[in-house]
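batch job 7 of whatever, protein = Shikimate dehydrogenase
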Amino acid sequence: MGEVRRAAVLGSPIAHSLSPVLHRAAYAAMGLDGWRYDAVECGEDGLARLLDGLGPEWAGLSLTMPLKRVALKLADSVSELAERVGGANTLVFRDGRRHADNTDVHGIVTALAEAGLGSPGSALVLGGGATAASALAALAALGLDAAVLAVRDPGRASQAAEVGERCGLAVRVVTLDRVADHLPAGLVVSTLPGRAADAFAGPVAASGAALFDVVYAPWPTALAAAVERAGGTVVGGFEMLLHQAVRQVELMTGRDEVPVAAMREAGEAELARRAATAGG
């Protein structure tokens, strides 16, 4: 039996998080028998109290919405990237201190690079929330110096645009009804939820752009299916989720050899199970 250590994913709602499946698969493949990973429902108001109640057996936390911004205020130290992006999806506990980090950007960069999209040339990002901010930071890391950000309400996209600019991108903000005016682009990144991007399937597919769609269930989205039919390269949200989790396992365990294949297999199997259940 290995040492007893704990980790968890926090957020609200949290019941359908795929993180427990991914992290537990990593622990099993790494022989970390004493490690446990749970899903805990937690809103912004409850995070400080929860953190104060954690014992020394806790190695770290994965954070999803709505906790990514408030986590910065509750950490003892913050990585440069998390500071720049304005949000942390990871808290690592070391020597009684809380360190905030962001692995979403790593997840996007790695997913795109694996798909041969490591040098997209130009990019159009749909949506202006926290994931769009991470996407802009990832595009900057991939060498872009400019991007177009298409949103419903430009007045609510200032935080995402500022993140891009802090990372060295010249960000042009336009409204979603003008998407077609900014095609073709080397890469279209959709951070829109659910079926909100369906209306753009035709124009994006016809433009010949590659696509990164952050949705991972249900999959494929209408947008992803249209781009695939047109012969374009498509990267789904599961790949981002997988690679950000891989980086979290590295940070929380302190080990570099993380079993990506085992995590991918477990995650894909769980998504297939959920799809079959929903369809049945």
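notes: The longest strand covers residues 5-11.
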